[in-house]
Amino acid sequence: MAKFSAEYKNRVPKYILTFRGKEFDFSMNQKLEYGTSSDKPCFSKQLSDAFEDLNEDELEETDIDQLDSILHDEEELFEILERVEELE
To answer: Which of 68 and 15 is assigned the larger pLDDT?
Structure first.
């Protein structure tokens, strides 16, 4: 089962995805002039690098990289996790 969580520490959000028994994460901790930058690649890139049977394009179609931006919309979050779980 795919699992997504967010942690907030010292005003820095850390997003964590558990997929196929492995944990992937990134934090939005670098302030830029017009927003923030992450400390690691997006989830689709991390998963495609970790699993040979998944490609980044296929993962992007699940909207997995939108998880961090839709925390306010639980229904959409659940739909994305269901699409990702289909790949497990």
So the answer is: 15
| Secondary structure class of 86 (helix, strand, coil) | coil
DSSP secondary structure of 42-63: -HHHHHHHH-TT--HHHHHHTT
Contact between 85 and 2 under an 8 Å Cβ cutoff? The reply is yes
What tokens does 70 get? 């839709």
Size (the chain), residues: 88
Given a contact cutoff of 8 angstroms between Cβ atoms, the answer to whether 47 and 19 are in contact is yes
Query: What is the CA 55 to chain-centroid distance, rounded?
Result: 15
Q: Looking at residues 63-86, what average pLDDT do you find?
A: 81
In Å, how far from its chain's centre is CA 46? 9
Bridging pattern class, strands 22-32 and 3-9: unpaired
* Predicted model pTM: 0.78
User: What is the dihedral angle through the alpha carbons of 34, 35, 39, 40, rounded to the nearest 10 degrees?
Assistant: -100
